[in-house]
Amino acid sequence: MENLSNPDENEDQSPRSIDQNDQSASETPVYSTMSIDSFIYPPTCSESTSGFSDQIDETNSFCSDASPSDWPLLTESKSSKCLASGLEMQTNENLQVQEISEAELETMKERFSKLLLGEDMSGSGKGVCTAVTISNAITNLYATVFGQNLRLEPLETEKRALWKREMNCLLSVCDYIVEFIPRCQSLSNGTTVEVMESRPRADIYINLPALRKLDSMLMEALDSFQNTEFWYAEEGSLSMKSARSATGSFRKVIVQRKEEKWWLPVPLVPPEGLSDIARKQLKNKRESTNQIHKAAMAINSSILSEMEIPGSYMATLPKCGKSSVGDSIYRYMSGSGRFYPEKLLDCLNIASEHEAVQLADRVEASMYTWRRKACLSNSKNSWNMVKDLMSTTERTDKNYVMAERAETLLFCLKQRYPELSQTSLDICKIQYNKDVGKAVLESYSRVLEGLAFNIVAWIDDVLYVDKTMSGSD
Fold first, then answer.
1. Is the separation of the CB atoms in 268 and 242 below 8 Å?
2. Which spans in 335-435 are helix H?
3. How many Cα atoms within 13 Å fall on the side-chain side of residue 265?
4. CA distances from 356 to 331, 415, 423, 429 (A)
């Protein structure tokens, strides 16, 4: 009753809110005040507790004199009901806190400590910068939640809660990355003055809400795969448990899976294939998820392009762009006619992802080599002036033209192979990036891009099996 009668103490002890939508717990009386519970769990009923305390104060602060007749009296029955409801709310919140396992809380503490230490467990301050630490934390969280999710099925409740809770914690840092913008304000006397107000930084203000929307759309896409006409068989269990689907055509699917990614579960469909309604729904979901993948990829590319190019990468560039791409590619790119990057890619006959990544690295290195030469031809030797110089450089400059063609070829290569892993420059940018906001946006968009691509690939697997079964009939 004493701690309920003091609303100031309750307000001081309530932790800062991180996510207003996640109202799972408010207080953790079991742990010490030095824990990171305030970083993990938002408050829920501090307002209701303080409001109830005000009513209790009015009844407990009494004197021996009778109350004046015009004072509103709080009867004992109402006070008891109010006290019972307040205690019941506190009990429910405490039970929700206790439902969180001790191992899960320890994991959160460990990850929060790594954020503060920069992944340097010695504590000597030799860890990586905060931006890299948060980027690694988002990547590792994605691997923990979705690493074992290899099927078209709803995400488990525990993993969904883990993803939402920890992402809210990691994204909360963006709430404090702000910029000041002017705003007109009218005073009481009719005078209009200009004041400065803070809002999230421009890139965060635009991209973070979009990424949150894409995240929720992907969760909804996974939730929609319930009571489906297809199912999955683990590798090695097909011949024993799925004899009705073991046709000659389906064995070709298994052989193809073994050659590519043998560890993935094999989708199965009825002998007559999917119904027309189910097949149409699958194609619609594939199209919508593919649009999500393109949106996440566009955001990721824009964030990476805004990151500063490290000096260590510029130091490793070759002196000549021709030596980087090779004679045959350079001969085609330097032709006097119109440049067709798609035809060039068709002639290269790229057989694996490894070859595609190697080609992307070589083309990207040659592109920046030619850009640097175009800037040096204008007597400018500082890379910080590259963007300004490229806008004023003569379009007829050969180095400028070759850099433009290399950029076009790199763009077409990434469009043709959307599952392409990051290039050496992208990895170098992420490694040396010190902007926390860009690190959050880049890693968040990257993991959403990967999840969307996986969903599209899993749908393609089901449609391929359905087509195979229909062909066998």
1. yes
2. 341-348, 353-376, 386-392, 398-416, 424-432
3. 17
4. 19, 12, 10, 20
pTM of the full structure: 0.68
- The half-sphere exposure of 333 on its side-chain side, counting CA atoms within 13 A, is 28
Q: How far apart are CA 334 and CA 337, in angstroms?
A: 9
* Two structure tokens written together for 243: 């004899």
Q: Using one digit for the tens of pLDDT, what is the confidence trace for 356-405? A: 899 999 999 999 999 888 876 554 445 555 555 555 545 567 888 898 99
Instruction: Look at residue 86 in the predicted model and tell me its pLDDT.
Output: 54
Q: Within a 13 Å sphere around the CA of 353, how many CA atoms are in the beta-carbon half?
A: 8
Q: CA distances (Å), 440 to each of 50, 127, 192, 299, 300, in order?
A: 36, 18, 38, 12, 11
3-state SS string for 326-363: CHHHHHHHCCCCCCCHHHHHHHHCCCCHHHHHHHHHHH
β-strands 266-268, 178-186: how paired?
unpaired
Q: Which two tokens stand for residue 313?
A: 């990468």
Q: State which H helix or E strand residue 423 sits in.
A: none
